[in-house]
Amino acid sequence: MVFVRPRSKGSQSEPPSVISGLRRVESIKMLGVTISRKFSVSQHVDNLLAVCSQSMFALRILRQHGLPNDALHQVFQAIVINRLSYASPAWWGFTSADDRNRLEAFVRRSVKLGYRANSSATFASVCDDANNELFSQITGNSQHLLHPLLPPEREQYYSLRDRSHNFQLPDRTSVTNVKNFIIRMLYNDNSLDYSYRFIELHSFLLCNSVLSVFIKL
């Protein structure tokens, strides 16, 4: 399979096959996650929804046989939600808005059917929790397999408020690059800090201006 830019149009010149007899495919399934040659996971979402929809029939049978709602919610969490969120840190960043809407719609329909509690978190929150947990494991363990992929730590010259990580932010060279788990988490983790950084910088410059005025006086 030859990967191309997600927004590329028209025919792409592809290198000839190195091994004769091998057929190039449009998508590949790796460790249970299907990704296309344009870095799309729509087919993976299709497969997940198809499999989980079949599990809904089994849940209905369990309810008809008198399974309590609390136990039904636990079964739904173990079979459906865990299957939907399997390896989500690897593919959640590559989902489109339509993919996420379809996943959320499926979960909302499950709530209406009584298979999930009304107070349960959205599927996006489930994936965000999985992302944060994995990122915390990577940053907190220097022996983690993915720890060498982290950028160097940045130097602190001022006593600023604590942040969740102290790594340098790499360049966002393309749309696909931003969807990478490490880069996505580094920026998402700092997205809420941008306004505070502006305030801190503005306060710092203002203090310097005031000090310079007093020095001149």
Q: Explain this structure to me?
A:
- By secondary structure, the chain is mainly alpha-helical.
- The chain is built from 8 helices and 2 strands.
- It has helices at 42-64, 69-84, 88-91, 97-112, 123-140, 175-179, 181-191, 194-216; strands at residues 27-30, 33-36.
- Helix 1 (42-64) runs antiparallel to helix 2 and helix 1 packs parallel to helix 4 (97-112).
- The N and C termini lie far apart (71 Å).
- Overall mean pLDDT score? 81
Poorly predicted spans: 191-202
Helix coverage percent of residues?
40-55%
Order of helices and strands: EEHHHHHHHH
Largest sheet data: 2 strands, antiparallel
In percent, how much strand structure appears in the residues?
under 5%
Helix tally equals: 8
Taking all Cα atoms into account, the compactness measure Rg is 24 Å
Write the layout of secondary structure elements.
Layout: E1 27-30, E2 33-36, H1 42-64, H2 69-84, H3 88-91, H4 97-112, H5 123-140, H6 175-179, H7 181-191, H8 194-216
Antiparallel strand pairs: 1-2
